[in-house]
């Protein structure tokens, strides 16, 4: 069954700001981004009907789908993959981003507000920017960096031309491995 890094053991996030990057450097993020790009085709945005869960089944545990609420001021989580639940220590399906608690609160009661702001900012950047966003997020334990979360967020429509949802994923890699 793989080691704790592959399974995504719970971790405590100690950073305040994500690192936005121009292109993904983790192989799973690259593959999923290419899939979404193929599904988008010549249109500005991919439509949620373009996604075939069977084609991306192996990525589903690492995926999140959110739906815009109040014009994108907040987002309701429609899917929060099992690997994300295990890694972050909270089932978030059905919750608004503004309701997220601190990652792995069992380790520390840090600042849930910063977690909510971080998730909302990344999701809004994709939603309002109308293009994919790639992010790297460091994780640490005992004040030592040991995992990097490699993330993407992609806006999508639902039969129209305006974004209504954001689909994304996070894959973790050991900090001492470049790109996973």
Summary keywords:
single chain, globular, 180 residues, disordered N terminus, seven-stranded mixed sheet
Walk me through the structure:
This protein has 180 residues and is an alpha+beta fold. Helices cover 24% and strands 29% of the residues. It contains 4 helices and 7 strands; from the N terminus they run H-E-H-E-E-E-H-H-E-E-E. The protein has helices at residues 4-7, 27-40, 82-88, 112-129; strands at residues 19-21, 46-47, 63-69, 74-80, 133-141, 144-157, 165-174. Strands 1, 2, 3, 4, 5, 6 and 7 form a 7-stranded mixed β-sheet that branches. The radius of gyration is 15 Å and the shape is globular. The relative contact order is 0.24. Mean pLDDT is 84; it is low at 1-16 and 104-109.
Mean pLDDT: 84
* Number of beta-strand segments: 7
Alpha-beta content class: alpha+beta
Shape: globular
Radius of gyration: 15 Å
End-to-end gap: 18 Å
- The number of helices is 4
């Amino acid at each position: 069954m793989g080691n704790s890094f592959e399974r995504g053991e719970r971790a405590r996030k100690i950073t305040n700001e994500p690192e936005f990057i121009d292109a993904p450097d983790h192989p799973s993020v690259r593959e999923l981004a290419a899939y979404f790009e193929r599904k988008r085709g010549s249109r500005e945005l991919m439509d949620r009907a373009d996604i075939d869960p069977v084609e991306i089944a192996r990525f589903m545990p690492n995926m999140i789908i959110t739906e815009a609420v109040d014009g994108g001021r907040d987002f309701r989580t429609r899917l929060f993959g099992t690997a994300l639940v295990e890694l972050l220590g909270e089932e978030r399906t059905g919750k608004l981003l503004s309701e997220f608690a601190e990652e792995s609160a069992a380790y520390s009661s840090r600042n849930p507000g910063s977690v909510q702001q971080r998730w909302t900012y990344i999701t809004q950047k994709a939603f309002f920017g109308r293009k994919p966003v790639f992010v790297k997020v460091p994780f640490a334990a005992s004040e030592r960096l040991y995992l990097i979360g490699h993330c993407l967020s992609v806006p999508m429509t639902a039969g129209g031309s305006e974004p209504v949802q954001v689909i994304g994923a996070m894959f973790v890699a050991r900090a001492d491995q470049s790109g996973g």
